[in-house]
Structure formats: structure tokens, C-alpha cells
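[09:14] KT: can someone run the structure on this one? pasting the chain below
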Amino acid sequence: MILALDAAALRNDPGLAEALLDLNNAHAVELSVLDADRLARLVDEAFVARRFGLADALLIAFDQDADYDSPNFLWFRDRYERFVYVDRVVTAAAARGRGLAGALYRDLVEQARAAGHTLIVCEVNADPPNPASEAFHKGFGFEPVGEALLPNGKTVSYLAFRIAAR
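[09:31] RB: done, C-alpha cells below
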């Protein structure tokens, strides 16, 4: 079952915060390291923050109005008037193969559609490569819209998914 995530829950449940930080930080190369305060701020600012289990999978996404300083988010904000930006999606190694990331994305599409959005965007590391994320996003229907070399030396591919009208 997909569970909503809010900053109050993180602040009131240290075990939840620790489990999600462990999940995120185990994938720091693909995502970026977080501490408890930064995680709570991201969740507080999020358009959608969802998880499976205690920390089987996590998704945090922002809309174009978020107060967020990520260079990837800012790249999209410079180019698109309205969008939902997937900042991070991660599945624990022990929970892979159960369709959790796909379920989180389908939920995100429904939340975005309900808010009137027509575009979901994200980035995937090209160097260092992240072939699992690249394959997942391609299979979901994301298409390339740009790329960049970031100040930290990573190269990323920018992707977009157009939400079909119902």
C-alpha cells in the first residue's frame, strides 16, 4: 500500500526518518546524500511524497512553484511553465522486482493529472551511468529533452513524460 509522507511524521518518528535516510543514502551516487533536516524540508516542500512500507520505496516530487535549489529542478523551471519534477525515486534492494517504483509513478501521474499538470520530468545519471533507472523511465514512457554536465562532475539526461488526457 502506498503511504503518504509528511514532514511531521518524519520529525515525530525517528525510526521512519532513519529508515528513509538509510534508503536514500545507500543510493547517494544516484540521488544525493540527505540528512534528517534536509529530508524533512524536501518532504515539506513536495508536491507528492510517498513511500511503501517503512522504507521499501520512496518518491519525492515537486511542482514548478517549489522553493528548491537543485540545478536539475532549476533547469526544468527555466524551460517549462508547469511541470512535476521527480527529485528522487528509490527502491530498497530487498524490495526490487515487486513493481513498487511503477506503482509510485502511476500514483504520481494521477496526482499530477488531478492538479491539472500535463508534464512529469526528471533526470537520470548518464555519467556515472544508471542503466536501471534509464530502462525504467524509458519503459514508463519518458523521452529525452536535454542533458547537462553538473558542477559535481555528473552528466545527466533530462527526461519528460506527457500525461495523457482522460
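[09:33] KT: thanks! The two ends are 24 Å apart (CA to CA).
[09:34] RB: yep, looked fine to me
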